[in-house]
Prior knowledge:
- By secondary structure, the protein is mainly alpha-helical.
- 59% of the residues lie in helices and 3% in strands.
- The chain is built from six helices and two strands, in the order H-H-H-H-H-E-E-H.
- Strands 1-2 form a two-stranded antiparallel ribbon.
Amino acid sequence: MTAGAPSPAARDLAIGAGIAAEAERLDWLAAWPLVVRTRADLLDAIAALSAAQAAWKPAAAEWSIEEVVRHALNASRDVLRVIEGLAAGDSEGRRTRAGEQPAHAPAAFDELRRQFIAHSIDFASVATRLPAAPHYELTAPHARFGRLNCRAWFLFQRVHDGDHTGQITQIKAATGFPAA
Length: 180
């Protein structure tokens, strides 16, 4: 860290404040294309991958694309629970949704990808299921970005998906990545 530069924690809180401010400025309809476009980019990045490509790791201590996708799916499920919970007035912001699949993902990458697509459709339509007057005053803490309300959590997902799309792009560009 250079002299006078903010710490990583301070930078993260500033990002969180930016997400919260964006959530105040944008309504759900304006936020939707931003979030969905970034999710579509993530899904595009994994669309044509073989199981061998998904399982490949650039180094032993690094994640494979399959591990990135498992994480992204589980995190997105959690974020969806937070959004729905906060909007409905649950100050904890976390509830298991009726009929939700277990947090673990299937063993086969093709099925994992299908589950992620199906979840993405559900995630994209969250605004249609919220109460008429969501509880924007309620917030839940994010480990790095501070307290976020339901719409800020929706917008946060764009940051998370963008980070992991970049990670997948780097894995695919790494020396030794399988051709198929």
